[in-house]
Amino acid sequence: MTISTEKKEVTVFGPGQAVRGPLEDFIWTLNDEPHQSRRKAILAKHPEVRKLMGIEPKTKYYAAFLVVAQISLAIYLRNDTFSLKFWILTYVFGATLAQSLFLAVHEISHFLAFKTMWHNRVFNFFVNLPIGIPYSAAFKVYHVEHHRYQGVDGVDTDLPTKIEGLLFTNVLTKLVFCTFQILFYALRPCIVRKQIISTWHILNIITQLTFNTLLVYFFGWGPIIYFIISDFLAGSLHPCGGHFIAEHFVFVGDYETYSYYGWLNNLCFNVGYHNEHHDFPNIAWTKLPALRKLAPEFYDNLPQHKSWMLVIWKFVTDPNVSAKNRVKRKDIANLARNPCGDIPVTKDD
Fold this sequence. Notes:
Blueprint: E1 10-11, E2 27-28, H1 34-45, H2 58-76, H3 84-109, H4 117-128, H5 136-148, H6 162-167, H7 171-179, H8 181-192, H9 199-219, H10 222-234, H11 243-246, E3 259-260, H12 274-279, H13 288-294, H14 296-299, E4 303-305, H15 308-317, E5 327-328
Parallel strand pairs: 1-4, 2-5, 3-4
Helix pairs in contact: 2-3, 2-4, 2-10, 3-4, 3-10, 4-9, 7-15
């Protein structure tokens, strides 16, 4: 791996940066994903990075606040469903809280809130409650594979399918994709990659349905409607929703992962530090800025996004960008032939 000692910030959509495209097909490669090799190189040069690894105790308190805030707002708006007040508060606060909850579930899926696996899983059921749909158990399985087999077609369910690549190529269809992207991210895994249902899946479903039933019994359907619409808006044309596209769509050369270091990270558990996160999934969100600061020669020269909203705008309007702007790898090991099970999280996941 070549390391540049000269700091040269490369901004996606910046001066002299032309987006690769339009593409006839996905970007197929025989190269390994970049994160494992960079992780080894960083550890060889900066062994002190190991001190950053491990849980972040504060995560559970931030996540608990988000849960209480979202449930409180849902109850407050229970009788205002679909009013102007409802839509404004749901877009501004509800969708932002929902995105934060999504990313809290993401963080805890890496077992970075508690020392034991059991505590992380059970706490994730709690964080899942104001999302309204039981998904934390299934997300954990899919997400571990996303890290372990990044870009492998039919295994990494973060990748758009062949049909998506054919459909989402012009302004109108790409606008549809961005508007409904939460549905693609939620439904695509169920279609592409079957999961083996575990006890954790069943407990997740029972916990969520029990909570939803109690909420409807005491407060009616208003809070549930609020949760679902908040989820939808969070993954639609929302500033925080831009991270879905920003993370892995190819905008510069063959770079397949991009970071964003802006202020929205404060609302999103630093998910913008995405190269850093994929290099070291066992480093908690609060310490990712320290990782970048400790090893700047590995990160400062990588292409980075300056605005998630600009990412959405460029994705929709730039004719060189489409759903095909993703790096894919052939499933050489034929992993997709078997449904995915509940893979244990390792230090590299």
